[in-house]
Each structure stands twice: as C-alpha cells, then as structure tokens.
Amino acid sequence: MKLTIHRGTHEIGGNCVELCLNSGETRIVIDVGMPLVTSDGLPFEWRHYKNLSQEQLLEQKLLPAIDGLYSYQQPSISAVILSHAHQDHYGFFRFIHPDIPIYMSPGTKSLVEVSNLFLNTEVNLNQTQTFTMRQPFQVGEFTITPYLMDHSAPDAAAFLIEADGQRLFYTGDFRGHGRKKVLLERLFKEPISDIDCLIMEGTLLGRGEGQYQDEKAVEQAMCNIIAGQQSYTFVFCSSQNLDRLVSIYRAIKRSHKTLVIDLYTAFIMDKLSSISPHIPQFNWKEIHVLYTYSHAKKLAEYDKKLLYKYKKTKIEWEEIQAAPKNMVILSKDNSYFRRILLPKLGASSGAKAIYSMWHGYLERTNLAQFLKSHDIELTEIHTSGHAYAEDLKKLADAMNPRCLIPIHTFYPDQYGDIYKEIVQLDDGQTYCL
Asked: Do residues 261 and 297 share a domain?
C-alpha cells in the first residue's frame, strides 16, 4: 500500500490523505479539507479565493494535486471518505467529481446537508453512501472499517484500512475528554492489533491544554455563571458542536433558565435526533426558538413544513425582553447579533457573555472590545475537541504500530516524545508501507 499526505504534515487543517494499491488499480482519498492558515501563517479566508477556478486553486497549491479527483478531470479516484463534518476536513468537497462515491457516517451526512443549506458549502451528495461504525465496507480491494470517535463533531470516525496484506489506522480528529470518552478508553483496553501504520493527529502538541479539562468542567463553569445571572446571558458557540450544546443545556436546566436558539440550531438538533436520544431538541420545555427572516427564508426553500413544526416552541421578542434574567441566548459573532439582536433587546445592566469556542477565533475579531463597549462581561469557557498528549501516547502504545506518521499538527517533531517509531513526511511525499 502507498500513502501520500497531500496536506497536514506540518499544519492543522486541510487534511487530505491518498491511499493507493501497490498495483495502482484502486485509489481512495480520505478527507479533502480547507486550510485554516495560509502559507504565511495568516488565517485562511475562503471569500478571498472563491472566485478562482479549480485550475487556479491548484496552481496556487490550495487544492491538493490529486489527478482524477476534480470535476473538470476524468475521474480516476475510486472513492472519497470523510472522517467528520468540519470544514478543515471537507471544505473542498465541492470540487470533487460528481461521479466519485463519497462515504460518510449518517450524522456527518446530516451536518453536511445542514451546511449546504445554511453555509453554502455546495457539496454534491448524489453519490453519497453512509457507513455503519465497526462494520467493514469495500472499495475495490480496500477493506475499510470505521470506528466512532470522541470529538467535537458528532458521529466522527477513524478508519482501519486493509489492502495488500497491510493494515493502516487513520485516527481523524479525536479526544478522550468529551462526553463520549469511553470510546477512546475502549481502544486503550481493546486495541486494534497488527497495525503497520498509524496516522495520528496531534493538534494540541505545542499548545496548552486550557483552563477546562473536559466537558463536565465546561458545564459546571457555565452553570456557575448562568445560575446567578440577573440579566441576559449570551453564549457564543458552534451549533454543530453537539457536546457543547449538551453542556449548555445541562447548565441552563440545572439553573432553571430558558435556552433561546435560532432556526439553524433547531434544524441541526432535529436532523441529528436520529443518532442519539440525548441530543437536546427544539421542543424540550426549557428550549425556545427565535425566528429570523434569513433563516426562515432558507428553511422555507428547503421544506416549508419545518417552519410550522418549529413554531410550536417559537419565542417572541417581547417574551425575551420581559424576563431577561431567565434568558440564555445562543449567539454568533455576526452582524445579526451586533446590529439586530443586541439593539432590539435594549440596554440591560448586568448582561454577561460566555465564549465557548477556540480562543484563536476570538483573536480574529473585535468581539471582546465590542462587548466591553456595551458593558457586557465576557468569560471564556471552552475545552478542546482534540486529544491531549497523554492520550496520544496511550493510543500509540496500545496499538503499537510498526510506524506512526504525524498529521494535523504544527509540531511533528514532538511526536518523538509520544512514540518510538516515527516516520515524518512532507506534504506530497509518497510513502510505501
């Protein structure tokens, strides 16, 4: 088996791995992500490049140089496999040739559908096939077995890939301190054996672990703020981070408060209800939906009946204004929050905000200064969606692969502290197992 990491050997984001049989007859690609940073280390902004052609994106080395993958080429890739629904893993799926099958988990497919509708991700899902965790499926001579992993994206998968008498394990993104940490603990206790190559992420290498160790600590810290609030609480959080939505919901429930969500979040909860009964739902009694014109318009174009479905728990502006101390409002740092939501609620002394996302995103905006100018106290409460170094080492030791290849990290040199047999590649370099 031959592998090429087209992107991710020396950066977080933009993951893309190609696997090829020694015969060259079957080729598969795992993830085709959008980068998080430019070659200069600046934040990557897709809006600056979205008008370029695929050929131009390839020339600028933004798209991975994979012949037979893209819509303007003759397709020669047997399948593309998606580990989870984060843009740094599937942001460039919009360019995949429509005849190439795409494999993903049911939850991942639901999130991609939501993002297509609300975030214009433009993924062609006509050739999508869903897999079941721990049940092998075939792509040509490749046997692929997905494993559910604990990550901030729901229904995230790692893959055991077998071909040419060899076994490779691709972790995707994972952690061991979320609400599904038992999944990683199971791999420690019952490791997959006889692994020739482990491709393992290392996002947190070279970075601190943060103030909050796990999702339970996040929940408690949120509860400490929300319970005593005498005015609005704004929580800035990704609506696709279901573990975090659970933490927020549990905090407001313990505090006897009301969670106000938007139609986008209600749609996500609804779409993903099939993968777990524990995902908070728009019709739970502590949750209400605030309608906005732009979200309602998009949903109406998709399925107008959803507007009537979610209307059962719709909340009006007057209801929010009448009970500010009871309202915890899921928010986004956008023009709607700054120009409509906050002005419409009016001045309310004592309002607080919780920022529950990666600190790097906060550094890219002036949100902290904006909130301060409105006398809104901001507190960061977050835990990473990625594994700590200790868990990376435990997984490597448990699987005991013949070699470990770093991916999804800015610090591949630090893998030597994790495992004894490291093969460090460069982007585009082909390695024969």
From this structure: yes
Identity at 136, one-letter amino acid code? P
Rounded alpha-carbon distances, angstroms, from residue 268 to 58, 114, 273: 33, 7, 8
- Enumerate the β-bridge partners of residue 200: 406
Residues 249 and 166 in one domain: no
Residue 225, φ and ψ in degrees, nearest 5: -80, -50
* pLDDT tens digits along 186-245: 999 999 999 999 999 999 999 878 889 999 999 999 999 999 999 999 999 999 999 999
Are 256 and 356 in the same domain? yes
Selection from 158, 205, 173 nearest residue 416 by Cα: 205
The HSE-up count of residue 207 (CA atoms within 13 Å, CB side) is: 20
- Check residue 40 and give its pLDDT: 83
Tell me the average pLDDT of the chain. Answer: 96
Cα separation, 11 vs 25, whole angstroms: 30
Count of CB atoms situated within 10 Å of the CB of 41 = 8
- Cβ atoms of 149 and 157 within 8 Å: the answer is yes
Residue matched to tokens 């819509």: 71
Q: Is the dihedral of CA 109, 333, 330, 244 positive or negative?
A: positive
Its domain, for residue 282, covers 215-380
